[in-house]
């Protein structure tokens, strides 16, 4: 039996790090969000996809704080975009699915991290974006939300197509069992 050629697929991946909200975002009404420096890499095998994810992860910004010797100093979004192209119709029919794997840096209390200078500013931006994400989640849980505040931070703006609509979202939270982490763990779970 011959191979079905009625559909073709192209798959691209990208890895974006959001550090101190320094991401240049443009939005086109027709094609959506554009980031000038973001490269989309075509992949055809799972090994290529994993290599891109690992390369991005290895190059993420980390720093030393009193809470963590390899503290994430940024949020990251790994996006897998799959385009299905129907070759049987006169005009090309394309369906697109996106999978965003979002790594969100943990919240920080300056009193626990003893962060100063640049580390302190990073912590402030991390917490600001986490607050914005929490506000988006709260708005989505309302029965008739009037406004979803996706543009309050770069993190929520970049992942806005994952908030509501026909998207499915799964969140995995890292919480610590130690008494010293109780406040952060409780805040994360809320």
From TrEMBL:
Residues 1-190 form the Kinesin motor domain. Gene3D superfamilies: Kinesin motor domain (3.40.850.10). One of its GO terms (molecular function) is microtubule motor activity. This is Kinesin-like protein. GO terms for biological process: microtubule-based movement; mitotic spindle organization; spindle elongation. Its main location: cytoplasm. It comes from Daphnia magna. InterPro entries: Kinesin-like_fam, Kinesin_motor_dom, Kinesin_motor_dom_sf, P-loop_NTPase. Pfam families: Kinesin. One of its GO terms (cellular component) is microtubule associated complex.
């Amino acid at each position: 039996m011959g191979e079905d050629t009625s559909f073709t697929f192209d798959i691209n991946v990208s890895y974006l790090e959001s550090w101190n909200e320094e991401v240049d975002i443009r939005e086109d009404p027709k094609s959506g969000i554009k980031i000038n420096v973001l490269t989309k890499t075509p992949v055809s095998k799972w090994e290529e996809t994993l290599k891109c994810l690992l390369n991005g992860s290895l190059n993420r910004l980390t720093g030393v704080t009193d809470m963590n010797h390899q503290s994430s100093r940024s949020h990251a979004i790994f996006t897998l975009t799959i385009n299905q192209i129907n070759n049987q119709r006169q005009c090309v029919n394309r369906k697109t699915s996106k999978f965003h794997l979002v790594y969100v840096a943990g919240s920080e209390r300056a009193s626990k991290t003893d962060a100063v200078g640049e580390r302190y500013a990073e912590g402030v931006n991390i917490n600001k974006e986490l607050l914005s994400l929490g506000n988006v989640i709260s708005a989505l849980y309302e029965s008739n939300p009037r406004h979803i505040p996706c543009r309050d931070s770069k993190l929520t703006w970049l992942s806005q197509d994952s908030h509501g609509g026909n998207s499915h979202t799964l969140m995995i939270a890292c919480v610590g069992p130690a008494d010293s982490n109780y406040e952060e763990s409780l805040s994360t779970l809320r």
